[in-house]
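Methods — Computational structure assignment.
A single polypeptide chain was analysed. Its primary sequence is given first, followed by the predicted tertiary structure written as structure tokens.
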Amino acid sequence: MTDNRQSQEAVTIRQKSEFIKRVEDFASYMQKEYIDEGAERSLLISAGDRSIGDSQGGMAHILLGDKTLTTAGLVSMMRHDGFSDLFRMARIVSADYEDLDEVISGRRRRLRMLYGTAGMSALWTLCIIGFQIVGVAHWITTISNLLLMACAGFMLWREIRSLRRQIARMKATDRKEHEARMKHRMATFFDELLRRVKMDDDDDE
């Protein structure tokens, strides 16, 4: 079992939240009855309780079973309409904002390499044709090489087209998430400002 139950804070949350305690008891039961049998099963739980008093909240994150199967399940969730917005919002409010930019940069570098490879292939194709024109190459060799270059060019074209589409989708996603992050920051700023104003008013009273 992978979880966040070992800290002193987690112990305190379990003492204050009956809901979190029941969730963890359920996870322990599922591990004992089903997961420990060695079957290829997985269970991922994220439970939160914001009603434990004094404006406090607590969460329990528990992972049971095959991590590879859990990863496949998360990928499936990210692609599902009902969960995709949730994962997008998690990226927006996360402290790590640079991951998508790094992925886009990596895809752009690969795209530049493919463009360079395509340019070299085109140049070599012209050389093959030139060799045939000046009579220093046999026509069978020329045709074979041209067919080979045509296959290579087709595969390069398909990969370049797919990569360009991926980059375009990522840029659109990054732009939307950037706008959503700005809105989230502004909303957080105003909420904090209102909270402080309210606290000052209460102190004055």
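Note: DSSP finds six helices and three strands in the chain.
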